[in-house]
Design a protein that fits this description.
Elements (H helix, E strand, L loop, with lengths): L15 H6 L4 E5 L5 H13 L3 E3 L5 H8 L3 H13 L3 E6 L8 H11 L3 E6 L8 H4 L2 E3 L2 H9 L11 H18 L6
Parallel strand pairs: 1-2, 1-3, 3-4, 4-5
């Protein structure tokens, strides 16, 4: 199984890696900065599952724009990340309620006809109303089932070894993810 990449690493320019991954699904991880550890753990699981992600902590242009308090640059980077993605996964926590960017990212993704899903992390009790009309994931099993349904992961004839690799990935990440999400 080919491991996914974080496309935020590619934001500095187009490379051979970009062309190798351009036709694959890519999930933009929308999160509040305070939930970055959970976002990283979720992103690692998704990448090991064979799907690309865009997680902003490695977008050097975005970090530079944030440091310079350059609102136009921040918006441009977020939109660029979403444009390079096929889906958005919103991590829902109590911090999400205070975010200005998560609703913006979700709205931009909706306008771009991206697949929208949200994942409820442990400390959150419910999804915001604007996310209840999209796919809602309530734990590890839901996240795994969601990944199984992506186009990247649906070969014409799935081999036994691929199913085995996916099972290994699930088992490898399960305990780490359960620190943040429900079982």
């Amino acid at each position: 199984m080919i491991k996914g990449i974080n496309r935020a690493h590619l934001s500095g320019g187009v490379s051979e890696s970009y062309f190798a991954h351009a036709q694959r699904d890519c999930i933009f991880i929308s999160h509040k900065y305070e939930d970055l550890d959970a976002a990283r753990e979720v992103a690692e699981y998704i990448k090991d599952y064979g799907v690309d992600v865009y997680l902003d902590d490695h977008d050097l242009k975005l970090q530079k724009a944030v440091k310079a308090n350059n609102s136009e640059g921040i918006v441009s980077c977020i939109e660029g990340g979403l444009n390079a993605s096929t889906h958005i996964l919103v991590l829902v926590t109590e911090h999400t309620r205070m975010s200005w960017w998560v609703p913006y990212e979700t709205g931009y993704a909706k306008m771009g006809k991206k697949g929208i899903a949200s994942l409820l992390l442990k400390e959150a009790d419910e999804f915001p109303d604007y996310l209840k009309i999209e796919a809602t994931l309530d734990g590890f099993k839901d996240l795994s089932d969601y990944l199984e349904g992506l186009h990247t992961l649906t070969p014409v004839m799935e081999s036994t070894s691929l199913r085995y690799e996916r099972l290994l990935v699930r088992n490898q990440h399960r305990d780490a993810l359960l620190r943040y999400i429900r079982g």
